[in-house]
Write a structure and sequence with these properties.
single chain; about 55 residues; mainly alpha; 2 helices
C-alpha cells in the first residue's frame, strides 16, 4: 500500500490480506469521512476475522 497517508509493505503466505484490502477498496468510498468509514471498516474486519483489542471511538 502506498499513499501520501500510509506507506507499508505486507507479505503473507496466501491472499487473505489482499482480499481484505480489496474488500476495503470495494466497500469504503475514497472520499468517505472518517465517522462514516469506521462502521464500514468494522464490518469488513469482522468478515475477514480481524479483531481489535479496543473499540475505536
Amino acid at each position: 500500500m502506498h499513499t501520501p497517508q500510509a506507506k507499508f509493505l505486507v507479505l503473507t503466505p496466501d491472499d487473505a490480506m489482499g482480499e481484505f484490502f480489496r474488500d476495503i477498496d470495494r466497500t469504503v468510498p475514497a472520499d468517505a469521512p472518517w465517522p462514516d468509514a469506521v462502521p464500514l471498516l468494522g464490518d469488513i474486519a469482522a468478515r475477514h476475522g480481524v479483531a481489535f483489542g479496543e473499540v475505536a471511538q
